[in-house]
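Hi R.,

Here's the chain you asked about this morning:
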Amino acid sequence: MDVMGDKATLFETGRFVQPSGLDQAGEAAEDAVEELRRRLAAEAGDVEAMSVLGAMLLRRGDLDGAEPHLRAATAAGDRAAANNLGVLLHQRGYADEAAGWWRIAAVAGSAAAAHALGRHHRERGDEPAAEYWLRQSAEQGHALGAYALADLLEHRGDAGAERWMRAAAERGHREAAYRLARALDRRAPNEGREGQDRLEGHESREGHEQGEEEAGADNGVAATDEAEQWYKQAAARGHRRAALHLGAILEKRGELKEAGRWYLTSAKDGEARAACALGFLLRDAGDTESAAVWWLRAAQDGDGNAANALGALHAERGEPQTAERWYRAAMDAGDDNGAYNLGLLCAEQGRTAQAEQWYRRAAYAGHREAANALAILLLQGGDTAGAEPWFSKAAEAGSVDAAFNLGILFAGRGEEAAALRWYERAAAAGHTEAALQVGIARLRDGDEPEAERHLRCAAGRGSAEAAYRLATVLDARRPPEPAHELGESVHEKSECEEWYERAASQGHRRAQVRVGMLAAARGDVIEAARWYREAAEAGSRNGAFNLGLLLAREGSEPEAAVWWTRAADAGHGRAALRLALVYARRGELAEGQRWADRAVSLGPAEVTERAARLRDALRQELSA
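And here is the predicted structure, written out as tokens:
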């Protein structure tokens, strides 16, 4: 009974593969019974039982327990025991002695031992001996032997490598199936496999205002049908890179659900690029939170693209420190976008010198949007002559942002008409920020119809700010209404509210507050609370204040006080006044006076006046 064939993974991995069944407790009990039965048989002199018992103990890692049984069975001529004894000795670090026992087993006909012996010789640089023993193993139908032989021949550039790689793949060797698929891919037409060797996926800097979103790398694969089948076979056997490539093929064909399934399989097995690609699929499907989970996993494993995506996500959320950490991680991973995004982040924070440093680093590496951003920074510093060459470089690289940024150049010179022309050119080419700028300029000029047209374009392309501004334009056309009170009659939802909601759903805090106010005006308290809470949790002091008002009117004053405290701490005078009143009613006069003082300092004027009267009254009460 040659059991070594099942233990060949020992030589390659240095450990046994652990069972993955659902009933491990039951299997452990069965193994214990089987071990006892074999032990009794071995003690009675059964050679096969000695061999199997030694293999069982070896699998469990009990080298001291396994060795005497394997030596006894080997002495009795059991080739499987000789093979496993070689494995045991190899694990102990006695490679030469192990090779001696493998030779004995291989001469006796053990394909697994021939494979192990061939690997031993190859590791020592004796390729003729390695080829001899690996061929012996492969010709006996041993999958690992066929694969190792193919690897050796491929290393030498031998045309016979594919034959043995195919043989190993047909016998279920997953790495052989993957490598065979890659070889077939390399023979495919160049136009069909350009994206295959990159598999770096998508650009990830959509959280910033300056610069056009770069097109992502082609993540598709035009592999042959045969290559796809081998990828699928390897992936089905748990090969994570094969699952990644299979997912890329399916994504290229538009089979996103199936692509996501294979990306998920690969990502769960630890493939960072698959986790990153899965994140983008989820992002494109609108599930940003789940996307962030997979980007985090990929970024922690060194994927620069995922780190950039996380940085953009945190930048959008108003978390610049976290964004900077991930952009640095992307840069450390060799992704030029990391340096570019760091420049954007520093510029947004007013750290001009650092921004210029990061922009230059990315621009010299050929990043066209970094060149644009650097030119903007130079413009802002008054260096028009230094800015124009960088704009030109970006434009020559095909960036639509060149037009947008040239608009910035002319605007910096005070040539508003020329700047608007460049903005309009960029907007016509699909530049969202340019369309927003044209809309803002037209509003400033009083051309409301043209402003509305451009704002609609920008909002339709996903600009939350444009959606909010468009909503304010439409809102201003409605007849003025008195300040809403909870319990008013329900109003029909208007178009401006729909645009507010679109902006709010993209995280625009002012829009979230406005949607909450409109919902409250309709009498929809639940919807109003939801939007107020979302705005408040994102840092909106008005959202926190309005949520407190709503909760107080619903009878939840303690919870309302929590949100008023958050709003007051952020500088909301009315919230501070509300807190002063709450504490005064509770009889906590000192605390009420403290919040009244805060309200006086925060204002506005009417709040200051009321808070001052309350403060004085509380002071008199305390001194009485």
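One quick note: DSSP finds 36 helices and no strands in the chain.

Cheers,
M.
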